[in-house]
TrEMBL record, chains A, B:
<dbReference type="InterPro" id="IPR036388">
    <property type="entry name" value="WH-like_DNA-bd_sf"/>
</dbReference>
<dbReference type="InterPro" id="IPR000086">
    <property type="entry name" value="NUDIX_hydrolase_dom"/>
</dbReference>
<dbReference type="Pfam" id="PF00293">
    <property type="entry name" value="NUDIX"/>
</dbReference>
<dbReference type="InterPro" id="IPR020084">
    <property type="entry name" value="NUDIX_hydrolase_CS"/>
</dbReference>
<feature type="domain" description="Nudix hydrolase">
    <location>
        <begin position="21"/>
        <end position="155"/>
    </location>
</feature>
<dbReference type="Pfam" id="PF21906">
    <property type="entry name" value="WHD_NrtR"/>
</dbReference>
<dbReference type="InterPro" id="IPR054105">
    <property type="entry name" value="WHD_NrtR"/>
</dbReference>
<dbReference type="InterPro" id="IPR020476">
    <property type="entry name" value="Nudix_hydrolase"/>
</dbReference>
<protein>
    <submittedName>
        <fullName>NUDIX hydrolase</fullName>
    </submittedName>
</protein>
<keyword id="KW-0378">Hydrolase</keyword>
<dbReference type="GO" id="GO:0016787">
    <property type="term" value="F:hydrolase activity"/>
</dbReference>
<comment type="similarity">
    <text>Belongs to the Nudix hydrolase family.</text>
</comment>
<dbReference type="InterPro" id="IPR036390">
    <property type="entry name" value="WH_DNA-bd_sf"/>
</dbReference>
<dbReference type="InterPro" id="IPR015797">
    <property type="entry name" value="NUDIX_hydrolase-like_dom_sf"/>
</dbReference>
Length: 249, 249
DNA sequence: ACAAAAGTGTTTTTCTTACACCCATGT
DNA sequence: ACATGGGTGTAAGAAAAACACTTTTGT
């Protein structure tokens, strides 16, 4: 809905300052893969509450912004990247428990952002310190950010199954080995290389080969072919996570 | 994030009434299946803007409520159902475009709700009129509710593939034919009954048989066995939508 | 007897899986 | 030579799709 009286409790006259206001913010779970590990961007809090604790980057939605616009602005500020227009940014969900910020009523729209390479954050804005931290040892975070981060991880893991999202973790040109590493890092297991390769190449629009020559993978081994992200968004059929031991009947 | 100064634009002193407030509301896309068609709950607007137009039910989030709590309260008010505690309610996403309500800044957290049978809405609250409308002829709705409704439909359709959500459209005890109708109605096609049956029964925890006897389906035909919703939440492997003609390469 | 809906069986095809194996490069 | 990672092939098994067929009810 939008502003309209229901339930007999909400104002109809729109006296904009008569009722208890909600602050609306965005929180960002910015994920990347560095050295084969899933990392998350965190900022150190300077003041109470949770002073000295790490938190997800974020900030207020300004009066003329949508949450998406605010999220992209914050992403640029916190990472220090010049161009964030091509980066993957997606709404996760909204957190609105009354007590989640002890000071006032704050409703926060959370986003997940996926980055390919990972330059050290430039610590823009006024954030005391911004830094990449391994996902596994990120917590405990301020506020309800542990939960937000866990939700983000779960969502990204699920999206890898049925969307082409994995390419968002890769640079513009990448090898199939790098793409496979994305899956293995987020899912936390290993995949069969020949089968992974077949599935990816059999999905139209997932990746497309780059006409140029092959590249070294970092020294050893046969040079790998380069691919670009394709035009497809969905994966049909999906690339299912290998079933964990013990879960099936 | 939560209230914290970033980017140099947000207040740090928390003068709760000094800045332009955001109104926070919930919008509900309440879906059900009636007579083999997908129906959505709509309310008729009494005043401007969009007076006389149909809209999704919803309302303000009260100062001590989470968005989820507000959504369930609105659901009870608008449907007139005595007990909405068991009904499926899930956050869809948040809509925050600055111009989506011409009067003031309204950020709305949208939810999807799924109902089994469908009593005519009792028009609780102050909504002038509440009514079930076929999904296909629901629009055009007020505000950005066409978009919200379309997003809800897409989300529910996708969730049928990899979750046990379909049982939320069914009464406590149902036949496999009814369950199949849910899929066919939401997806808009036909499924092969023997194969559907096998897939459902092969998925542990999706449905479980009711010890009692068989029931008539409405007159003709062999009485069908009754099932209850199982304990599983996810569907492994998923029940994939039949690919539409023309989409695969 | 017939229509309608539930339920079972079977065959064909497709996809997944688990490997074995070769290729190209750096040390 | 050999370790390392890229890439190809293939045979066994599992799953999905298509369709024929039987069962049980109401009219």
């Amino acid at each position: 809905m939008t502003a309209r009286a229901t339930g007999g409790s909400a104002p109809e006259g729109y006296d904009k300052h008569a009722f208890e206001p909600f602050a609306v913010t965005v929180d960002l779970a910015v994920l990347t893969i560095r050295a084969g590990a899933l990392d998350v961007l965190l900022v150190e809090r300077g003041q109470e509450p949770y002073a000295g604790r790490w938190a997800l980057p974020g900030g207020f939605v300004l009066p003329d912004e949508s949450a998406e616009t605010a999220a992209r602005r914050e992403l640029a500020e916190e990472t220090g990247l010049a161009d964030v227009s091509g980066l993957h940014l997606e709404q996760l969900r909204t957190y609105s428990e009354p007590g989640r910020d002890p000071r006032m009523r704050v409703v926060s729209v959370a986003f997940t952002a996926l980055l390919p390479d990972a330059p050290e954050p430039r610590g823009g804005g006024d954030a005391a310190e911004a830094r990449w931290r391994p996902y596994d040892t990120a917590g405990p975070l301020a506020f309800d950010h542990d939960r937000i981060l866990a939700d983000a991880h779960e969502r990204v893991g699920a999206q890898l199954e049925y969307s082409c999202l994995a390419t968002a973790f890769c640079p513009p040109e990448f090898t199939l080995g790098e793409l496979q590493q994305v899956y293995e890092t987020v899912w936390g297991g290993t995949l069969d290389r020949p089968n992974f390769r077949r599935k990816v190449l059999a999905t139209p629009g997932f990746v497309e080969p780059v006409p140029g020559a092959a590249r070294l993978t970092g020294g050893r081994g046969k040079p790998a072919a380069l691919y670009r992200a394709g035009t497809a968004a969905a994966l049909h059929p999906p690339l299912l996570r290998p079933p964990r031991e013990g879960s099936p009947a």
